[in-house]
Amino acid sequence: EIASCLVGSEMCIRDRLTTLLQNAEVGEEPPADDGVVEPGMVVTIEMFGDTETFLFGNREIADGDDLEVYSEKSPLGQAIDGHTRGETVAYEAPNGKQIDVKIVEVRPYDG
């Protein structure tokens, strides 16, 4: 560790930092392909008889992809988060109406 280098030993600190940077892992592992809605998943829902596919999470995950993104903090996102393929959940729209949403497909985003 860097703390074990002697005070004033710039070479020791540089060597330790170089080793850390060479072995650094960037990014996160994609979520498991287990059918559970969570950030980083591409979700297809059925609502009002129509299907819609989107990336669940945030725009940074999409990395320039044209796929629509829904936040887990949105009303729809909060309703489907943690649910699985085949489930139907309801959420309250901003206008106060209850909307039923069926989760049709859930797969990891492979951007």
- List low-pLDDT spans: none
For the biggest sheet, the summary is:
5 strands, mixed
Cα(first) to Cα(last) distance is 35 Å
Q: Which outline best applies?
A: elongated
- Quaternary state reads single chain
- Please give the radius of gyration in angstroms: 21 Å
Going across the biggest sheet, name each strand in turn. 3-2-1-5-4
| Count of separate DSSP helical elements | 3
Q: In what range is the share of β-strand residues?
A: 25-35%
Mean pLDDT across the residues is 85
| Count of β-strands | 5
Secondary-structure content class? alpha+beta
Overall helicity: 10-25%
The ordered string of helix (H) and strand (E) elements is HEEHEHEE
Description:
- Helix content is 21%, strand content 29%.
- It has helices spanning 10-22, 59-62, 75-80; strands spanning 41-47, 50-56, 69-70, 88-92, 98-108.
- Strand 1 and strand 2 (50-56) form a beta hairpin.
- The mean pLDDT is 85.
In terms of topology, how is this protein built?
Layout lengths: L9 H13 L18 E7 L2 E7 L2 H4 L6 E2 L4 H6 L7 E5 L5 E11 L3
Parallel strand pairs: 2-3
Antiparallel strand pairs: 1-2, 1-5, 4-5
Please give a handful of descriptors for the protein shown:
alpha+beta, 5 strands
Brief account:
The protein is an alpha+beta fold. Helices cover 21% and strands 29% of the residues. It has helices at 10-22, 59-62, 75-80; strands spanning 41-47, 50-56, 69-70, 88-92, 98-108.
